[in-house]
Structures are given as C-alpha cells and as structure tokens.
Write a structure and sequence with these properties.
Layout: E1 6-12, H1 16-27, E2 35-38, H2 43-47, E3 52-56, H3 57-66, E4 73-76, E5 78-83, E6 89-93, E7 103-107, H4 108-122, E8 125-127, E9 131-137, E10 142-148, E11 151-162, E12 176-191, E13 198-203, E14 208-214, E15 217-224, H5 226-234, H6 237-248, E16 255-258, E17 262-270, E18 278-280, E19 286-287, H7 295-310, H8 316-343, H9 350-363, H10 365-377
Parallel strand pairs: 1-2, 1-11, 2-8, 5-13, 11-18
Antiparallel strand pairs: 3-7, 4-7, 5-6, 9-10, 10-11, 12-15, 12-16, 12-17, 13-14, 14-15, 17-19
Helix pairs in contact: 1-3, 1-4, 1-7, 7-8, 9-10
C-alpha cells in the first residue's frame, strides 16, 4: 500500500511510548492518516521482545484510554521496601489506595502487541523497519530522512516527536547527565517460598535489588558496580543463585532457578524542551536509573499529556504548552530517582537516613500513601 509522504505528525520510535501517543491522539479525534510512526525494528522483532517492564496503576489507566488494555501481566498488590540486614522497612498495600493493583509486571512484547493492534485498527501509518538518518527543520515543518533496506527516502511532517530513546551509554550526552557507575543485571528467577503479588525493593551496599512478581517467579533487577556485574555474569547458575541469596536474604526461601542473565549500564541522561517543531518524550527526553521503576511510566505520562495538548493545538505553541505542563512531574521524578540512586548506595552515613526514612514511612501512613501515589501517578 502506498504511504503518503506528508503528515501532520511524525513519531520516531514505535515502542510503547510512541505508539501510545499515536493511539491517544486518534482516540481524541486527530486524523489517523495524518500520523506516521517510524521504527528501525520490524514489528515482529518488537512483538517477540522478552524484556520485563513495570507498569504503574496510572500507566494502566493511560493504556486503557488508548484502547490497549488488558495485556498479559502479573498484578502487584504489595511493595516491600527495605535495607539488607539493617534497620528500616516499609510495606505499601493496594488496600490503602482503593485500587485493584499498585502496578503490573508485563513483557515488553506484550505491551507492544496490544498497542500495535490498536494503531493498526485505527489506521495509523507504520513505517518499519525504517531507520531515521536525519531531520531538517524549517519554519513550516520538518523533513525526515529515512533508510529502508538501503533505499533512501524522506517524509514531511508539521511536527516531529522523538520517542526512540535507547540505552544509557548509547545516547548523545544531554544537559543533565550522570554515570552512576553501576550496571543492572536482569533475569527471571524462581524461589522456594514465593509470596504472591508482592514486589521487593532491597537497598544493599552495592545498589538497589528489585524482585518483581512475574508468572511463576520474579523479574530480577540487581544493580551493582560494573566489575561486580562482570563477575556475576561469569558464574555458573548455582553459584550465581547463592550470591543472589546472600545479597537479598531469606525472605523468599532459596533461589532455585535463573534464566540467562544480561547486564546494561545505568545513568541519568535528561534534557527538557526541544525546538519550535520537535519534541522528545520518554527515554528520548529522560533516561533514568531503574530504582522505583519510573522510566516507562514517566514516558507514558509524557505521551498522555502531549496527546491531550496536540488534540487541541497541533502548532509550535502547543509544544511550548506541553513543555510547561510536563516540567513539574518530570523534574520531581528525575530528582527522586537520582537521589535514591546516588545517596542510598553504599555504606555511607546516608544509609542511616534511609533506614530512618523507611521506618517513618511505615509508622506514618499519610507519608507512605503520598509516596505510593507519586509512584503510581506522578505529580498531577
């Protein structure tokens, strides 16, 4: 089918954030034929992506509005936050907030599939695999250069949204950039005594260790220094599980199984704003440390607000309004995750502050509720 070369909006990056934006715009009355999504990966590749993602209750609401819920996911009823072997813990429960779940654990491919089906049904143009090689902005719009299997082409759009973020270390350095000197080891693990629907965030001397309930086990995100990550990846399964048990503790019994492990570098890389006719959302605007699992959720909030604004005013003035509306939520989420990643790692005296803070949270329900709602909905 011939694809037109002129659009109202081009979205570079057809992951969950980019596709959510497209679906939300059409649901709000924008022309599906005026939107083009471009991505370097084929849709089949994206559907088969096994990575685990954490969705907050607020993100579920956004996906519902987009028409992409339900997806296959494990609900989180409780979140247990603690320090390994030291004072301080807090337990957040769905009952305190009157919600079905505090969040959900899903596979990237499942979320992509749900959103792709919606976008296809709505009639949004999808160019993939299509590598964006450059863009040129002028007073009237943006020209986007594309490479499809070695064939060069271009399209024209009134506005351009950059939603292709990539991993820290593979991105150009932005205005706010920090290398945390950590790598995240990810895998799916099983334990002898799992607790259904309870997520764990453990602060260790090396960094945060998260276990998110998924299927018959847990999605693991273990943050450690890069040299330590290399050592852990090189271990056989039995030894690795023993080291994981020593780091996490015995709350879930023994660790009995792990899938093949991967690691990626961690850092903060953020830059607000854009140009008159371009804007970045999701990881393209802010790449965060995975502590508290806010990266994708913040990106989906970007998409929801941008869709609401552009449905009313799809001009450079609309992009200015969007930037103003997102400043508070983005700024607070970046500061909170950056603080947790930097201060609450290691055996410095600030670790004592973490224990005190967790103890106060557990003893003072209003503070615990405020923090949980920030994680679920952002700053509204």
């Amino acid at each position: 089918m011939h694809t037109p070369s002129t659009f109202d909006l081009a979205i570079c990056g057809a992951g969950p954030v980019g596709m959510a934006l497209a679906a939300l715009l059409v649901q709000r009355g924008c022309r599906a034929a005026g939107i083009a999504m471009l991505d370097a990966k084929s849709l089949d590749q994206a559907r088969r992506d096994p990575r685990t993602i954490a969705l907050s209750h607020g993100s579920r609401q956004i996906l519902e509005e987009a028409g992409a819920w339900p997806v296959a996911a494990t609900p989180i009823h409780q979140i247990h936050v603690s320090r390994r072997g030291k004072f301080g813990r807090s337990l957040m429960d769905r009952g305190e907030h009157g919600v079905e779940a505090l969040g959900y654990v899903a596979r990237y491919g499942a979320v992509v599939s749900a959103l792709a089906d919606v976008c296809e049904r709505l009639g949004v143009a999808s160019l993939r695999p299509a590598l964006v090689t450059g863009s040129v902005e002028d007073a009237d719009g943006v020209s986007v250069q594309i490479d499809q299997a070695g064939a060069a082409s271009s399209l024209r759009a009134s506005l351009l949204v950059q939603a292709e973020g990539g991993l820290f270390g593979q991105q150009p350095e932005r205005a706010v950039s920090r290398d945390y000197g950590q790598s995240a080891i990810i895998a799916h693990v099983r334990t002898s005594d799992p607790v259904a629907h309870r997520a764990y965030e453990r602060f260790t001397d090396e960094g945060p260790l998260a276990l998110l309930p998924q299927d018959d086990g847990y999605a693991l995100v273990w943050c450690v220094p890069p040299t330590r990550a290399e050592q852990l990846l090189a271990l056989d399964e039995v030894t690795f599980l023993a080291r994981l048990g020593a780091a996490f503790g015995s709350r879930l019994g023994r660790f009995t199984h792990t899938t093949p492990r991967l690691a990626y570098p961690l850092g903060l890389n953020a830059q607000a704003g854009g140009t008159a006719r371009t804007v970045a959302i999701g990881n393209a605007a802010q790449t965060l440390h995975p502590v508290a699992g806010q990266g994708l959720n913040l990106g989906l909030r970007d998409a929801a607000v941008l869709a609401r604004v552009l449905a009313q005013d799809s001009s450079p003035a609309g992009l200015e309004r969007y930037a103003s509306l997102r400043q508070a939520d983005r700024g607070l989420t970046v500061r909170v995750t950056d603080t947790m990643a930097r201060i609450f790692t290691g055996s410095a005296p600030t670790q004592g502050l973490l224990g005190l803070s967790l103890g106060l949270l557990d003893a003072f329900p209003p503070a615990r509720k405020t923090l949980a709602e920030l994680m679920m909905y952002g700053r509204r």
